From TrEMBL:
UniProt domain RNA polymerase III subunit RPC82-related helix-turn-helix: residue ranges: 8-66
Protein's name according to its UniProt entry: DNA-directed RNA polymerase III subunit RPC3
A biological process term (GO) from this entry: DNA-templated transcription
Pfam families per record: HTH_9, RNA_pol_Rpc82, RPC3_helical, WHD_POLR3C
Chief localisation class: nucleus
Organism field: Zophobas morio
Phylogenetic classification of the source organism: Eukaryota, Metazoa, Ecdysozoa, Arthropoda, Hexapoda
Length: 506
């Protein structure tokens, strides 16, 4: 793993869990799978602290364990990809809120905060939060239906469990049990809610649920594809592709490189049922024809005979998205002339320096400078070939080409470096303005407490005046800076996700 990636992982662990967990996590990142005593010896932490850190990391599914040769000893492995996913928690919550509403949003939020929980306890906790935060009454029955809808849509999944009593258990989760709806006892849950029965009396005790990140990533992948077609054509084309992907899941595994043929008539029926895109329905055949004839060739006629069905080529889609992303980075990092040279090398696959100068329509000196600048930054590579029949000074010639896999991995490194810099800058802003931020939080806490006690507007205004106008101006600047940094962080994560999708399909 790369140094930049390791820095990001360490910083995330530091922010979320503190220095002890960060030290254990960083050691596991550097040395891979190791037993407990190795971690203690090399981190110089007390055994109790190492155990506590591992318990936290295992609870949040950031560390997994397997039996050593000695079945009584466990080897621990950091799941670094899972650590990076913590940056996407806000995206996951927002996705569920748009798709299922506030109740489901709170269910997923609670699960992300605690990592896992039983269904009954989770529902009771969400009811308590609604009463406290929103002064809104939510019934157990309605929340149970929301929970079941999330399980049926596979956004929630059962946590693996052990069937054997061993010092180092093997955690298993049969596919048939992953999304089995838990047993609910509404009467017993009501008794627990009112304090007339203990939590241990709930029937689903020991059956834990967690968030299924894979399902969220399917939605994020589909959103990228739909947005690409929407930008290239229009909203109706994007809706057509969304429905095609939706029907794909019926007959194709979610992460297949190419979908099985989807009958066009099914998509037309869905458009008619939704009745939200009348323009698409009116010109349906024309949209089918345009998407089939598009030079990207991401959607083609399906089956041996073709006609009447469509296939979407997901692998090729992300190959094109990756190329477009890299081209945009070259354009922004250098200039339009460098981007022109990059596209020329891409189209020719292998090309000599003299040909670049001729075909790019750029002055020879400038074309040479930009070509070698791209080479220095690893966006271009060179391959030297020898002339077998030549004995003179020009015994060989050099060809420029692009190794897209190498460029993608290098671009990911740039993303990790940028992400680390953004997170470091955010921490710096918090540290520099810690006093005034703490003061604002204290004032807000006092105001909240006084509102509960029924204080008047004049009393609340007096408390708000504890923050002076110059301090308010500083707080506004801090807030603006943090919003910009958060926005950039989300955009960088979107780029990382796209590039990871490309690598996944290779």
């Amino acid at each position: 793993m790369s140094v930049q990636y390791g820095k990001v992982i360490s910083l995330i662990l530091q922010e979320r869990f503190g220095p002890v967990v960060e030290k254990v996590g960083t050691y596991l990142f550097q040395y891979g799978t190791v037993p407990l005593l190795y971690i203690k010896k090399n981190t110089n932490l007390p055994l109790s602290k190492v155990k506590e850190a591992l318990c936290i990391l295992i609870k949040y599914r950031l560390v997994t364990f397997t039996p050593n040769r000695n079945a009584n000893v466990a080897n621990y492995t950091l799941q670094h990809d899972q650590v990076l996913l913590t940056l996407r928690y806000a995206n996951y919550i927002n996705l569920i809120k748009k798709k299922f509403g506030n109740e489901c949003e709170m269910i997923v939020e609670e699960l992300l905060q605690r990592s896992y929980w039983t269904a009954s306890e989770l529902i009771l906790k969400v009811i308590e939060r609604f009463k406290k935060d929103h002064n809104k009454a939510v019934t157990i029955l309605s929340l149970r239906e929301k929970f079941i809808s999330l399980v049926n849509a596979q956004y929630l999944i059962r946590l693996p469990y052990s069937e054997e009593d061993k010092p180092v258990p093997n955690l298993i989760l049969p596919e048939t049990d992953q999304f089995v709806i838990p047993q609910f006892e509404l009467k017993q849950m009501t008794l627990v809610q009112s304090g007339k029965a203990p939590v241990d009396s709930l029937p689903d005790r020991g059956v834990y649920w967690t968030v299924n990140f894979d399902r969220f990533h399917q939605d994020m992948r589909d959103k990228l594809i739909v947005n690409a077609f929407t930008k290239k054509f229009d909203e109706n084309a994007g809706e057509f592709v969304r429905l095609l992907l939706q029907q794909m899941y019926i007959r194709t595994t979610p992460w297949a490189e190419v979908s099985n043929p989807v009958p066009v008539i099914e998509i037309r029926d869905n458009v008619r049922k939704q009745a939200t895109h009348q323009h698409l329905l009116a010109f349906f055949d024309q949209y089918v024809s345009v998407l089939e004839q598009d030079n990207s060739q991401l959607i083609r006629q399906g089956g041996e005979a073709g006609g009447g069905s469509l296939q979407i080529f997901l692998k090729e889609a992300f190959v094109q998205f990756a190329w477009e992303t890299v081209e945009q980075i070259v354009l922004e990092k250098f200039d339009s002339k460098a981007a022109r040279i990059f596209r020329l090398v891409k189209s020719k696959q292998y090309i000599e320096s003299d040909q670049i100068q001729q075909l790019a329509m750029i002055p020879a000196k400038e074309a040479k400078r930009l070509s070698y600048q791209l080479l220095e930054e690893n966006f271009l590579q060179v391959q030297e070939l020898k002339k077998s029949s030549s004995t003179g000074p020009n015994k060989s010639f050099t060809l420029f080409h692009i190794d897209i896999n190498q460029v993608i991995r290098m671009t990911l490194e740039l993303c990790y470096k940028t992400l680390y810099n953004i997170m470091t800058r955010k921490n710096h802003e918090r540290l520099v303005h810690k006093r005034i931020i703490d003061k604002k939080q204290r004032v807000e806490t006092i105001i909240m407490g006084m509102r509960v006690q029924g204080a008047g507007d004049e009393q609340l205004a007096d408390i708000e005046e504890m923050i002076t106008p110059p301090e308010k101006e500083i707080l506004q600047k801090i807030d603006l800076t943090m919003k910009k940094l958060n926005s950039v962080e989300l955009e960088i994560d979107e780029t990382i996700f796209l590039l990871q999708m490309y690598l996944l399909y290779q």
